[in-house]
Design a protein that fits this description.
The protein has 260 residues and is of the alpha/beta class. It has one domain (2-257): TIM Barrel (Alpha-Beta Barrel). Helix content is 40%, strand content 13%. It has helices spanning 20-32, 54-68, 82-90, 107-111, 140-157, 177-185, 205-211, 219-231, 242-257; strands spanning 2-5, 38-41, 75-78, 95-98, 118-122, 165-168, 197-200, 234-238. Strand 1, helix 1 (20-32) and strand 2 form a beta-alpha-beta unit. Helix 8 (219-231) runs parallel beside helix 9. The radius of gyration is 17 Å and the shape is globular. The chain binds 9-methylguanine (9MG). Residues 41, 45, 78, 97, 99, 120, 122, 168, 170-171, 198, 200, 238 line the site of 9-methylguanine (9MG). 9-methylguanine is lined by residues 41, 45, 78, 97, 99, 120, 122, 168, 170-171, 198, 200, 238. One of its GO terms (cellular component) is cytosol. It is an enzyme of class 2 (transferase). It catalyses: (7,8-dihydropterin-6-yl)methyl diphosphate + 4-aminobenzoate = 7,8-dihydropteroate + diphosphate. Keywords: Folate biosynthesis, Magnesium, Metal-binding, Transferase.
């Protein structure tokens, strides 16, 4: 899954793709590099990020989505707002990537009737504004797993079948470095929930905390993290660097073909 941020304040490439044309050109590059899905976001979810109103978020994401729909690449829209979900689905979105796991009022109703639309349910402790202030867990893996199990149950009850779902432990969303490392190390624990796992580690500060590299220099650690996530059971990796990630995953995938 290639990342397209149409935001002025995303932690890695904020501002770069704010203009619609530049975002579309970047998306086309990621398609050429082999992206299987594109994730378009109009509101940054980085720690301390600013709220964006519905109209502004729609103005950012819809023109990019509309320009890419004809390419045939499945498009995910990264949003927690029901109005944005509805418009994006009407415009042809294939997935809604909600870092708030459909907990906002109106979101379940926005997506439930659209049986062809996939949904990513992500774990987050707190909100992007405050989540890194003091994240607390007694047992990170079982608490995140319990949260995802409860959200799967809640969305199923709202009429959304499990075959429409993807789950994500939410690396960096209300977690310390130790929490993130425990989640990555035990990512395979989440496979028992029976839902495909998405992992987003690309260029995140947890990687820089280990290597000391700043955000623009985290290619190698991002590729390593994506590969490790795949080995531990992730089916989708959300990345900025599609070409390098694809090459690394191709090696792992080739070893998996041997087992078939
Ligand atoms: C929008 N966004 C930023 N980081 C993310 C992650 O790790 N997972 C998902 N699903 N979305 C993310």
């Amino acid at each position: 899954m290639g990342i397209i941020n149409v935001t002025p304040d995303s932690f890695s490439d904020g501002g770069l793709y704010l203009s619609t044309q530049r975002a579309i050109a970047h998306a086309r590059d990621l398609i050429d590099e082999g992206a299987d899905i594109l994730d378009i976001g109009g509101e940054s979810t980085r720690p301390g990020s600013q709220y964006v109103n519905v109209d502004e978020e729609l103005n950012r994401v819809l023109p990019v989505l509309e320009a890419l729909v004809d390419t045939g690449i499945p498009i995910s829209i990264d949003t927690s707002k029901p109005e944005v979900m509805k418009h994006a689905i009407e415009a042809g979105a294939f997935m809604i990537n909600d870092v708030n796991a459909l907990r906002n009022p109106g979101t379940l109703e926005a997506v439930a009737p659209h049986k062809h639309v996939q949904i990513c349910l992500m774990h987050m402790q707190g909100t992007p504004q405050s989540m890194q202030a003091n994240p607390q867990y007694i047992d990170i893996v079982s608490e995140v797993k319990d949260f995802l199990r409860q959200r799967i149950h809640a969305v199923n009850t709202a009429g959304i079948a499990s075959n429409r779902l993807v789950i994500d432990p939410g690396f960096g969303f209300g977690k310390t470095l130790q929490h993130n490392l425990a989640l990555l190390n035990q990512l395979n624990e989440f496979t028992t929930l029976g839902i495909p796992i998405l992992a987003g580690l690309s260029r995140k500060s947890m990687l820089g905390a280990i290597t000391g590299n700043n955000v623009s220099q985290r290619l190698h650690e991002s590729v390593a993290a994506a590969l490790l996530a795949a080995v531990k059971g992730a089916r989708i990796v959300r990345v900025h660097d599609v070409k390098a990630s694809k090459a690394a995953l191709a090696i792992y995938n080739a070893t998996q073909e041997l087992d078939k």
